[in-house]
Design goal:
- The protein is an alpha+beta fold and 202 residues long.
- The chain has 6 helices and 9 strands.
- The protein folds into 2 domains: 53 residues; 138 residues, Jelly Rolls (Sandwich).
- The N and C termini lie far apart (56 Å).
């Protein structure tokens, strides 16, 4: 391929995306060696893609990052030999003491410098995830269509708004979020609200 053909082939764009098969990859690498000016083309393509990504970027939900980090932490703990456990279902009869073995663990504590939301996964089982969550200010609007979200307040207090109804919760209180209705959490205590949060497949 000559310089004009390689530029018009679309291979440079695919190269930037990392989507080339072996033969095409070799072809582009050889062209980059033969035509040094193609490096400028690659830089322009990368800049255009970056600008496009920034222009159409979607702000992730506030709970995504803390749970992503909590998942990485959980996977590292399993890799290090942690035994998988099965915490009891969070329900109306649940007591804080039912989860004491996890609450007492040294690795299940909030760091001194926590962000607005911090999470530690207790267990991830088929159809059920249980986590400890600390909320400094609250949690933004959220809605669930395929899983029930159950809260057991361990420390602090909060107001959970479900639709247009407010529910005031303190340590020891339980609440289940209904499907298909928006809910949000606002912290009402001077300390972060510590919650056992469990999501169960509907």
């Amino acid at each position: 391929m000559n310089l004009k053909e390689i530029r018009e082939s679309g291979l440079l764009e695919l190269y930037v995306y990392g989507s080339l098969e072996n033969e095409e990859l070799v072809l582009v690498v050889e062209a980059l060696s033969k035509y040094p000016e193609l490096k400028n083309d690659l830089e322009e393509i990368e800049m255009a893609l970056l600008q496009h990504a920034e222009l159409y970027a979607v702000e992730p939900h506030g709970i995504v990052k803390p749970f992503f980090l909590a998942t990485l932490d959980y996977l590292e703990r399993l890799k290090a030999g942690e035994i998988i456990t099965s915490p009891p279902l969070v329900n109306k009869q649940s007591k804080i003491s039912d989860y004491q073995q996890w609450l007492d663990r040294a690795d299940m504590q909030v760091p001194e410098e926590m962000d607005a939301i911090h999470a530690k996964i207790i267990a991830h089982e088929p159809g059920k995830i249980t986590a400890l969550v600390w909320l400094r200010f609250g949690a933004p609007d959220e809605i669930h269509h395929d899983e029930y979200e159950n809260f057991l307040i361990v420390e602090g207090s909060c107001t959970i708004t479900v639709g247009d109804q407010e529910h005031h919760l303190k340590a020891g209180d339980y609440m289940s979020m209904p499907l298909h209705i928006t809910h949000s959490v606002r912290i009402t205590s001077p300390i972060p609200c510590k919650i056992i949060l469990q999501r169960v497949a509907a």
